[in-house]
Amino acid sequence: MASGYRSGVPDDWYVDPVRLGIPGIRPAIVDEDNPLAWQTDALCAQTDPEAFFPEKGGSTRDAKKICTSCEVRSECLEYALANDERFGIWGGLSERERRKLRRRAV
Ligand code: SF4
């Protein structure tokens, strides 16, 4: 990977059903300090995470479509911007779209 481009789902991107609960089945262990607590309601956690971290040039359409119905879209986007997440779809925006948004905010 000469370009430094990373593909695939990162190791720290997941919803642990024990800690974060399963919607309608297991309540979350509420941990106010967990910066990823909003993932309890993440729609992508119920789908294929690979769609949110496509290979370079891969389609992001399906992932973005899921994000439009996600209740924690703004929390997700805020988290990605605050943590400078470089890869994947977060809050319905691609890496490039988040970069643009960040530039506009400056
Ligand atoms: S906005 Fe999209 S990426 Fe973020 S939690 Fe929801 S479905 Fe997942």
Automatic annotation (TrEMBL):
Subcellular location per the Swiss-Prot or TrEMBL entry: Cytoplasm
Primary localisation category: cytoplasm
GO molecular function: 4 iron, 4 sulfur cluster binding; dinitrosyl-iron complex binding; DNA binding; metal ion binding; protein-disulfide reductase [NAD(P)H] activity
Entry note: cofactor: Binds 1 [4Fe-4S] cluster per subunit. Following nitrosylation of the [4Fe-4S] cluster binds 1 [4Fe-8(NO)] cluster per subunit.
Post-translational modification: Upon Fe-S cluster removal intramolecular disulfide bonds are formed.
GO biological process: cell redox homeostasis; negative regulation of DNA-templated transcription
Keyword Iron-sulfur: yes
Keywords: 4Fe-4S, Cytoplasm, Disulfide bond, DNA-binding, Iron, Iron-sulfur, Metal-binding, Transcription, Transcription regulation
Iron-sulfur recorded as keyword: yes
Any one of the GO CC terms: cytoplasm
Residues bound to [4Fe-4S] cluster: C44, C67, C70, C76
Domain 4Fe-4S Wbl-type per the UniProt entry, residue ranges: 43-100
CC cofactor: [4Fe-4S] cluster
PROSITE patterns: 4FE4S_WBL (PS51674)
Secretion signal span: none
Functional note: Acts as a transcriptional regulator. Probably redox-responsive. The apo- but not holo-form probably binds DNA.
Family assignment from sequence similarity: Belongs to the WhiB family.
PANTHER family in the cross-refs: TRANSCRIPTIONAL REGULATOR WHIB, TRANSCRIPTIONAL REGULATOR WHID-RELATED
Protein name: Transcriptional regulator WhiB
Organism, scientific name: Ruicaihuangia caeni
Gene name of this polypeptide: whiB
